[in-house]
Amino acid sequence: MKKRILSILLTLCMVLMLVPTTAFAEENYMITQNFKYGTRTYDGTDPQTSPYQFVIPAGGSFGLATIEDCSPYKLVGWKESVSGTVYPPYAEIQNLQSDLTFDAVYQVQGGLAIKIDGFMPGNTPNDCTYTFESTIPGVTFDEKDIKYLRWKILWAGQWEPINETEAFEAGTSYRFEISLKNNGLELVPATTANGIAPMYSQVVSNNGVPYAINMEFELGTPVAPTLAITVDNFEVGKTPADLKYSFASTNLDVTFSEEDIQYISWDKYVFEVERYKDIAETDVFEAGVRYRCRIQMDNNGLEQEPAVTMNGNTPKHCTIMTKDDKPVGIEIACELGTPAPAALTISGPDVVCAEQGYEFSATASEGAEISYFHYRCGEYGGDTGWDRTDGGVCYGTVPASEYGDADSMVLTVYGTAANGKPATATKTVQILKEHIFVDGVCGCGAKPEYTITYDGGADFGLWMDVKTHGVDLTLAGKGFYREGLVHTGWMGSDGVFYELGGVYSTDADVTLYPVYDQLITLNVPFTTTVKLGGDAAPGETTFDLALIGSSAGDMDTSDVTVSGSVTTNGAGDYDGELTITGPSQQLWHMLSEGAFVQQVDGGEDGWTYDDTVWGLLLDANPVAYAVSDDAAAAEYTVYVVPTTVDEFGNYGIDWEAIDWENLQSEDMHFTNIYAKSTTEPGTPKTGDNSNFALWLALFAVSAAGVIGAGVYSRRRRSTK
Ligand SMILES: [Zn+2]
């Protein structure tokens, strides 16, 4: 039993311990890394020289590391010698099962560009020059490094050598073989000739010593030098000043730009004279017209004119200009045909009335797009809204309120052309302060003249007048006469009441109808008493009453007549009547808030005139614009009411003192005194007395003036 247990234990020991010991301890593999240039390193540490060898246990893994300090070469990878697999630097090899050998694979850093000038039709290999541009660290090449050159032509399916004086032919392919000194390179650098990679390239050695690099290139067909001039914006609506010129050259040693342009002019073909004629820088290219561009440029060292095109057209004329047998420029004249349709166009009137919004439309040609519109009026501007219709036409309006004081507006549409380049179109619009009358009306609605019609009805013919736009018109005065009525104003078809002879300033047609008022007569009785102050009796004497003011103020009372006089003959009471006749409304204006009556100081010798001022009041409006109401000639009572006088001598109705139940405060009466006596002849009058009488007279007149100048007026609060 014990033996068996021991043997199991031994077996276990062998399985658990002895087997691993033999696997790891006894099976190791050798790794060899060969490298010709530089040192092996892992992350720049511990540089090792070639060959570098190390041992890895079976199933183990390791990293390949990299090579440094190998200029002008660089490590591309590690080539495993059995499988041929090239591993990148730092690749990790896992589960190693055999010895492995890796050889470093190198590549030349940088490259070599060979430029062959003169490979063009008509030239020979002898005309060609070769320049070398090397970016290989520490290695340069020049023409002296050329060991030999050979050119071959594809002829009848075979590549045949050509000699150095055989001209290159257009349309035929050529190969170019070159052998360069290796200049220390043991590997072939990345090389191009005129941008073309070689068909083959190899380093050639003599007894294992590299001494040359041989390469062969297939260059294709020889290409003549070309200069393509692109003229942008050559489109309808643009001008020569809008054009942009750009230059692209091939196979030409020099480049051109807009700065090389010495002179440009544009001609358009005129059918009538069958030749081209000059146009100005600001002349607009028109649709369907053929144009020619003449351009002079610096030759930039060229002695032979290149094959020039302008927008794909071949010039009719293209030569090198010379001065004293030296080339000084290139002269080109090229017909460009008709301009392209404008990418964007704005349409609208050239002038607009300052009171009218500017309506415009815009279109984009096929493939072009409209983005937005901008207007500028003087120093102010902004974007304006627009709508697109199904037809692709855009419509917009710049409101007249945006014009400000500007005399013109520049409207610009922004967008893109079919080729994706930004495109614009502009339109300059003159803003007129005057209206633009077309068929008798401006776009803003104004007309040059307006018709004023006076329509008095069937009994009268129509009167016509013409108002000029912007000029006030003085309306007709009183013109229609009807029995018992007075023409007092005009009622317009516009709903406005106009005074006779008033001002009409609206720029619009109007019909004016006469407004009539009824003539009415108001009677106010009065009594004049004559008293004697002396013993002499006065003869027949007439006393007159007058209105010295009324509540009409500035209102028209021209149709009102007032009369009131009484003739006396000696002492006694005499009845008189003040008669006021006029249109009802004029009377209402005068009497609704009071008119004032005073005797006229006749200034007759010996008389002292009663200067009492009486107030008169009409308490109901007689007729409201009575045109046809003949029955309205009713009785209207004028009441005699108390007056007040203010500190300025202005009379007014004493509203506080009025008794509304009994308006007539007292009857109007005047008492005049005749003061003469039948004195003996020769009795001198006292100067004082006569002076006093004169003073009284003057006072009365001046008081009347003051009173007439302003009448105290107060709105009546209530009639009851
Ligand atoms: Zn207008």
What are the SSEs and their pairings?
Blueprint: H1 2-26, E1 28-34, E2 39-42, E3 45-48, E4 52-57, E5 62-63, E6 66-68, E7 73-80, E8 86-87, E9 92-93, E10 100-108, E11 111-117, E12 129-134, E13 146-155, E14 158-162, E15 174-181, E16 190-193, E17 200-206, E18 209-220, E19 226-232, E20 244-250, E21 261-270, E22 275-279, E23 291-297, E24 307-310, E25 317-323, E26 326-337, E27 344-347, E28 351-353, E29 358-364, E30 369-377, E31 380-384, E32 386-388, E33 394-398, E34 408-416, E35 422-432, E36 437-438, E37 441-442, E38 449-454, E39 463-468, E40 473-474, E41 485-492, E42 497-499, E43 503-504, E44 510-532, E45 540-550, E46 561-563, E47 565-569, E48 572-583, H2 584-591, E49 595-599, E50 607-608, E51 614-618, E52 638-641, E53 643-645, E54 651-653, E55 668-674, H3 687-709
Parallel strand pairs: 1-10, 11-16, 19-24, 28-35, 38-44, 44-55
Antiparallel strand pairs: 1-4, 2-3, 2-6, 5-9, 7-8, 7-10, 11-12, 13-14, 13-15, 15-18, 17-18, 19-20, 21-22, 21-23, 23-26, 25-26, 27-29, 29-33, 30-31, 30-34, 32-33, 34-35, 36-37, 38-39, 40-43, 41-42, 41-44, 44-48, 45-47, 45-49, 46-48, 49-51, 50-55, 51-52, 53-54
The structure holds zinc ion.
Residues 353, 355-356, 435, 442, 444, 446 line the site of zinc ion.
